[in-house]
Amino acid sequence: MTKNATTMPEENKEIHIDAASLLTDLSETARFGGTQKGGICRLALSKEDKQVRDWLSREGEKLLCTVSIDSMGNQFLRYPGLDDSLPPLVMGSHLDTQPTGGKYDGIYGVLAGLAVIRALRANECKTRHAIEVVNWTNEEGARFSPAMISSGVFSGVFDQQAAYKICDRNNVSIKDALEETGYLGPIPCGQHPVRAYFELHIEQGPVLENEKKTIGVVTGVQGMRRYIISIRGQAAHAGTTPMALRRDAMLTAAHLTVLATDIARKHGDEAKATVGEITALPGSSNVVCGDVTMTLDLRHPDDKIVESMEAAFHQQAASVSEITKTQMQIERTWNSPSVQFDEECVSLVRNCAEEMQLTHRDIISGAGHDAAYLARICPTAMIFIPCRDGLSHNEAEHAEPEDIVAGANLLLETILKADACFDLT
Ligand SMILES: [Zn+2]
Prior knowledge:
The chain is α+β, with helices and mostly antiparallel strands.
């Protein structure tokens, strides 16, 4: 076994993924939940999600992979290695989408993993570690909130029993949906060993495209915090209430939105503040607004800066509500600390990109990913490729075929390098 292992990197050197099959897989699976505008609506554990999962299992079986499902419906395809005592190298992402999602977010990472296994099989490539592809259940959080539930349970961030009880809008629980689709698997979620995890994904932002780089070597995920702000003023007649006597909740909300943006700008280019949702009551054109509920989302790669933005917002928001004579409550509903990916895995990706002469740059992910949770339990790295206009969570999401193929070949190369250099005794 060890003897084989030492000769393998040379033998495996000239392997490439089958570009045509990968592109066909992307367009074939886009039919499951395909929308008229060329996107995908494939909510987690829906009928369409079951179709694509069944498809993935069949493809795995064609490649003589062992297919296993865990108790959160996470789906693993295993290409066996020479040494069963070694934990597998795992690639993957998610096949669920937003209601008006695109064809690449998540899907690319799973299908590129499949393409890697296809290349290994076609070349009768022998690896020391088993190589696996995983499809994580409900990454998007569009049907069951929060996002990344199943990689979260897998990584010990969420409790499985609590996750099972989470319901969609029609009061269907995750557990019911898992049972209904036949994806309530027998393996306890989290008991599946992982030596290292590599996730390939579209950038979902404009940086790579702007800089004409093919590859983003993702070094980590920025810190994120989310808040619900409730503002209470007084509903009053728009024609008879003098401006000076108003307690206008909408006015407070407007000031707070500008304030959040100012605070982010003062904290440098990487700071972000977003008010993405607002509900104003009673919601009538001739009534001064009495109640507002709004969200705030703060992000920065450095948790200390997120902390400082939060403190500044709290302080200055208080004086806004004083001036507008409204009452305000700020509740933090989500805190996701920044993540630094494993240095060895990140270097592997960077070195392979360099050797393959792919243009690349280091990048920090602005969005959350399953990899952010996996990083808590195993060495993890991510690879980004550009997407047109940085557009994602949109039916118009697009990635260029040459970037798709380059990213998948980089994933293959990274996996082969990891296999050759990890766990040598
Ligand atoms: Zn995704």
